[in-house]
């Protein structure tokens, strides 16, 4: 076997999320870059090419097309460009965890590889992540772009929650059985994993995630009449959420606390208007605890979906095979930025414990006290790398020697086509 030079270099780990993309090299403890998943494309070139088709030469049109292909920005740069000039239009390539716009996604990857990580994609194996409910076609498109456009030597597409579980792998003893509660910006998934295998039929998905918390905070501030410039209000709400929000144990008590000592609990936000540069300030009050409350009492935000997160987790575990349930309750792992609220894991553990204890009591009463049920241990695990647990899990896995054997290689892609990306074997030879 010829030694592939790419296997001696670290793999690239790119975790594309709805809100943020985490990218870096395998073997590192944290991602080298965390950037908003957004692309700013210059629209003026496109109009220019249309206008010049009638009378101008082919060359001018061609070079305008090439410029349009190169003139775009991603991440924070994209946001600042779109604010300062009207020629750039923002495009969010991922919606609710699924890739929505493949052209934008390809551009996004292009800058990730060349401008941020600054490496030659032909020299590195890639580990990309995907959301649990992704269609196999999406994997084929990803494989096609990676092998055709970037000419990479090998690719592995991993499911995010499994990586999040593997992230806890180094922090505690090797537990590959657990429920991953992955709350990102665009989607929330509750995924039971037994011995490293996802129990597909029990995956639960919730239409409420980090972006909804932001929108709810934005709505609360708007209704209260805070003077935030409208074009800036979503960003301000997001910053307020990330800086000031926390989870409370009892909402009524919390309202009382805020009313008794407003000086202690109300925070002040100061910003400058993007167009004029004039300073403005606004108060941050109840939304500090009402934001995260959306996950525990969804009806305050949206009447379409009213099942609280603890109930969803409980239903998910109850629908899993009976011999895995105790182990699943014992290891509920949090992952994703929206689980970072202060005391979030305590509140979640308390609420799930309540549901479980009520069930045990009911079954004891039904059996008339002849048989005593063993109490069920509920444990919500919170760890310091929760925010990019998926990326870190990918970094751990992609730095093991077995990783390269599990990847799909360029040669395989050329022989069999994109359909090889549909299955991502944990072990080669077991399809």
UniProtKB/TrEMBL annotation:
Q: Name one Pfam family in it.
A: Actin
**Gene Ontology CC annotations of this record:** Arp2/3 protein complex
Per its UniProt record, what CDD domains does this chain match? ASKHA_NBD_Arp3-like
GO BP term (any one) = actin cortical patch organization
Top-rank taxon, per record: Eukaryota
Which keywords does this chain's UniProt record carry?
Actin-binding, ATP-binding, Cytoplasm, Cytoskeleton, Nucleotide-binding
- State the similarity comment: Belongs to the actin family. ARP3 subfamily.
Q: What is this protein called?
A: Actin-related protein 3
The organism named in the record is: Solanum tuberosum
